[in-house]
Amino acid sequence: MNSMAIDRRSLLLGTLAFVGTARLQGAFAAAGASADDIAYVSAMRHAQGSYGVLLLRADGSVVREVPLSGRGHDIAIHRPSNRVAAFARRPGSFAVAFELDKNSPPHIFTPGDGRHYFGHGSFSQDGRLLYASENDIETGMGVIGIYDVASGFKKIGEHSSYGTGPHEIMLLADGRTIAVGNGGLDTVPDAGRVNLNVDEMEPSLAFVDAVTGKLIAKHDMTGELQSLSIRHVTQDAAGLVWFGAQWEGSPSETPQLVGSAGPDRALKLIEPQGKGGSDLKGYIGSMAVSSDGLTIAASAPKAGHVLYVDTRTAKVVGQSDLKDVCGIAPEGAENFAASSGFGVIRYETPRASTITERELQDVAFDNHLRRVG
Amino acid sequence: MMIRKATLAGLFTFALALQTAGIAVSEPLSHEGMVKAAIEQHIVPHFNALKAAAEPLPAAVANVCKTGSPEVNRALSDQLAKTVVAYAGVDFLRFGPMLEKGRREQLSFWPDPRGYVSRQMRLILTKQDEALAQPGAIGKQSAAVQGLTALEYLIRDEEAPLGPDASARYRCLLAEAIAGNIVRLTSELAEEWEKPGGWAEKMLKPGPENDTYKSADEAAVEVVKALIVGISLTADVQMKPQIDPKIRLKPPYDKSGLQKPYYTATVTSLRHLYNALQLESWLPANRRWMKDWANGTWRTLESSDGAGGRAAHAERDDAPTPREVFDRANALRNMVANRLAVTAKLTVGFNELDGD
């Protein structure tokens, strides 16, 4: 690991990024709630433009809200310690960690000078470390930032992500391997969210040793798939990693956007039945696996669909419609909860049958919905 | 006469009742109407204007390379400026033909914080590969060397100007190839919109069999999204670098001094599209303040020259600061996305607009 100190300026900037402590928020707060009440976590936006992280019960009702001054993206969760970390969306540079069962002040941290976050991270299994996908702005190469939880999320090192624009990273079930969706897209905060290298992008799915930082395996998207930016990942019961992608090429040539691979398994896109990449409007916003590990859900917010794929056959078994759906998380053994930018949280089966639905007023759920535990 | 008076009084009473009920007095423009107006009044004319502006570029480059006189150099600069300004009017229409085949990046590679254009151009100029002068060859290279930004690089290189000298021979070959490629790209864009079965038809004939737009709502949302993207880009990449000293991003076509014309063309085009969509026609009487607010905001944006100064035809006496333009543009973006579009029954999703 490369030792790296966070300078005072960055720390102050990070502090400014957070507008409050994890206090209970007005209407979005419930008295007497405990960590056990919390089933889902998601970044969100209020209608008037303020941002936060919502902690929800299993039925979708709000336990409390943790306010953020900027737009969040994904949330890493470590259930044994009840700790969560919310990351700013690309190309933000703040992260906020707090404990579900305490109203103690949160930890605010930054990736340090010359880095920005891509919105995703993952705790180590023992909860002692937090990994985050980051950009080395000067070189445009991706890194995995490593933070020591015990020392207040001090950054203690970095691994290479072995690609450009790492988006979601996930510590796999072996507790040792990090799957990295290297989107291949180069961004510089000075140019906002503009992708700078669309015609020369080199996306890949990399598997990195979390301890040594060595590359275990890497699947490059080449040829006709060179414009397929891998962004989101999840892992099924058999250990296979599933990815959801964003197509940066001609819309008329959009391939399937969901596929799978492993360190020793070749990359393979799903069968072309059901919704194709074009019908999904070229973008998968979030991926999740059912608790039994047998079904993958992939949300397509631009198309307003959730696609359900049987991991054993790689075939689509269901597809549901929900306007601006993006967050997706397991519910029960085999079902899913899906959240939308219009405040809807819907529970449905992999066959796309709605179980129940709730709509929260004045809430736009952001890209990712995470199940606690 | 009495009847007319009675009729007028009745209409007035009816309008008052509608106002009281919060119902729009004028007939709102349908979603189909919005799409039609956007295409016919804004999109197609702007792409045709871009095509027309680009067409003389190859000849203008050839003239410079033949004589190198101040007159032809000036003519080339003028033609580049006209084309850049025309491009600024369509830059935010980032869907359909602009998205297909990466045409937008090929036509104009900006913002370029990493300096890809100069890096790639230096590489090409070092290699001096004559094959790049062949028809179609430059179109297979990096997007950074294909379009207006690459042509500007060659035109504005004071150390090695284009001209009849032998030392400029390869640069001239390259400039002519790039100019030809710009004509190809702008022609394709106009053609892809207007041809039978093209993008205009695709948007005007939505339905179950349409592979992109299943309904008029979807097509209208596409246009509204483009408007929102355009306002956001104006704030984030044209204005923000002027108010945040940490940001190091050169203005568009800075070497040619086109920052201000680029801004003006962008805002003029955005306002034109905004007017064509008539989102305000959906506002009930008790929300007409939004129309007034939007008018005031557009006036502010139009009163700026995009660089801290006052626009030539500004309606305001003072020059809006870059900070004010940035803030007002962001507020306008939110107004369009969260208020006007919603009132017009067009829901632009939080995640679908700008997912990640």
Descriptive report:
With 373 residues, chain A is an all-beta fold. Chain A has one helix spanning 8-16; strands spanning 40-45, 51-56, 62-68, 72-78, 83-88, 95-99, 107-109, 115-123, 129-136, 141-148, 154-160, 166-171, 177-182, 204-209, 215-220, 228-235, 241-247, 258-262, 265-269, 286-289, 295-300, 305-310, 315-321, 325-331, 335-340, 344-348, 354-359, 364-371. The radius of gyration of chain A is 19 Å and the shape is globular. Chain B has 356 residues and is mostly helical. Chain B folds into 2 domains: 50-194, M75 peptidase, HXXE motif (A middle domain of Talin 1); 216-343. Helices cover 62% and strands 0% of the residues of chain B. Chain B has 14 helices and no strands. In chain B, helix 2 (31-54) packs antiparallel against helix 4, helix 2 (31-54) crosses helix 10 (216-243) and helix 10 packs antiparallel against helix 11 (259-277). The longest helix of chain B has 28 residues, at 216-243. Mean pLDDT of chain B is 92; it is low at 1-24. Chains A and B meet through strand 28 of A and helix 10 and helix 14 of B.
Helix and strand layout, with pairings?
The complex is a heterodimer of chains A (373) and B (356).
Chain A: H1 8-16, E1 40-45, E2 51-56, E3 62-68, E4 72-78, E5 83-88, E6 95-99, E7 107-109, E8 115-123, E9 129-136, E10 141-148, E11 154-160, E12 166-171, E13 177-182, E14 204-209, E15 215-220, E16 228-235, E17 241-247, E18 258-262, E19 265-269, E20 286-289, E21 295-300, E22 305-310, E23 315-321, E24 325-331, E25 335-340, E26 344-348, E27 354-359, E28 364-371
Antiparallel strand pairs in A: 1-2, 1-28, 2-3, 4-5, 5-6, 6-7, 8-9, 9-10, 10-11, 12-13, 13-14, 14-15, 16-17, 17-18, 18-19, 20-21, 21-22, 22-23, 24-25, 25-26, 26-27
Chain B: H1 2-21, H2 31-54, H3 57-67, H4 70-88, H5 103-107, H6 116-127, H7 148-155, H8 169-194, H9 199-204, H10 216-243, H11 259-277, H12 289-303, H13 322-343, H14 350-353
Helix pairs in contact in B: 2-4, 2-8, 2-10, 2-11, 3-4, 3-8, 4-7, 4-11, 7-8, 10-11, 10-13, 12-13
